[in-house]
Amino acid sequence: MTGTASNENENESKDRRTRVTVLVALAANLVIAVAKAVGGLIAGSPALLSEAAHSVADSLNEVFLLAALRRSRRPADERHPFGYGKERFFWSLLAAVGIFVMGGCFSFFQGVEALRNGAEEKFSGYIVGLVVLAVAFVAEGVSLLRALSQVRKQGGAAGMRDPALRTVVAEDGTAVLGVTLAMVGMALHMITGQVVWEASASLAIGVLLVFIAYRLGIEARDQLIGEAADPESTGRIRSLLKAQPEIDSVEALFTMKTGLDSVLVAARIDLMPGMDSEQVEDVAVRIKASIARTVPEAQQIFLDVTDRSARETAADSPAATGERGGA
Fold it and tell me: Are 196 and 115 spatial neighbours (Cβ–Cβ below 8 Å)?
């Protein structure tokens, strides 16, 4: 119980840090979105308006991520006996869709419109636009550094397992690169008078956003479908089962992530012969406790005790209708 409580406290602490990171990103994106939109309208800049749409999409996504953090920690109930951990993945999928629709598609639209109709060049407006982008670059950079700092504190690659934190890092990294592209495109347009530079920057931002949205969406989809636990955890569970003297063989082992820090474990095991029902029950309880200690995120553990020889005999029988399970 103490280990479980400690693990829950650690997870809550991580969530608080992630919430602060998301709020920092949200505040930065809201301010930047307004500044980019005003600067884009003054300058008549498609690249800057594309970046404004990007920041609006990021702001909405931060709201999705805050919802994910709050709703995914709800305790299990009768309707959702495995808890609400997958809410985190669902809201992350919505954030990916938001990046694609509001960011990527609008950027493509702005780029194509600029190529078709051109854009009026206003020197003073472009100076305002470049200043806005420079400020946005600093703000997005600060938000990105905050997110990367949290990733390092949470173990680097292990920290990126959190879809909320992963999305913030992807958004902020994309924003820094997108602002850079917009600045280059705007500067070249101002110097050469050729709108193709800024239109190309807008299209490049669109391609970047669509790619990031695709990657985030694929990862969220895999987690929603039912992704297995990481190979290291699965290997530890399998080794623990094989090391038990009462287990003759491990017939099958299945794992599935039911949340960020929760895993379902189901194993089909063949016990040594000669054990009565009470001994089987004692062994099962002890093995479950050992798995929970070895892999703290294994919150749901099911053992199917099966008789391999009896199952093979049944399979050879003409009357066999399927595999025999155990209790």
Answer: yes
What's the pTM value of the predicted model, to 2 decimals?
0.70
pLDDT at site 9: 62
Task: Tell me the pLDDT tens digit for each residue of 258-301.
Answer: 887 889 999 999 988 878 888 888 888 999 999 999 898 888 89
Exposure letters 226-254 (e unless 16+ CB within 10 A, then b): eeebbeebbebbeebbeebebbeebbebe
Pick from 137, 151, 169: nearest CA to 62: 169
What contacts 64, CB < 8 A, 6 or more positions away?
Answer: 91, 92, 94, 95, 98
* Phi, psi values for residue 44, rounded to 5°: 65, 40
Q: How far is residue 294 from each of residues 120, 176, 240, measured CA to CA in Å? A: 65, 41, 8
Task: Compute the average pLDDT of residues 42-58.
Answer: 75
CB atoms closer than 10 angstroms to residue 327: 10
Query: Treating both helix axes as pointing N-terminal to C-terminal, what angle do 163-192 and 123-153 enclose, rounded to 10 degrees?
Result: 160
Supply the pLDDT for residue 323.
Answer: 37
Q: What span, in angstroms and rounded, lies between the C-alpha atoms of 184 and 48?
A: 11
Least Cα distance to 88 among 9, 12, 163, 7 occurs for 163
Q: 269-298 burial by CB neighbour count: b if 16+ within 10 A, else e?
A: bbbeeeeeeeebeebbeebbebbbeebbbb
Question: What SS3 class is residue 300?
Answer: strand
Label residue 93 left, alpha or beta by phi (over 0 means left) and psi (-120 to 50 means alpha): alpha
- Helix and strand numbers, DSSP H then E, in the chain: 10, 3
CB 95 within 8 A of CB 34: no
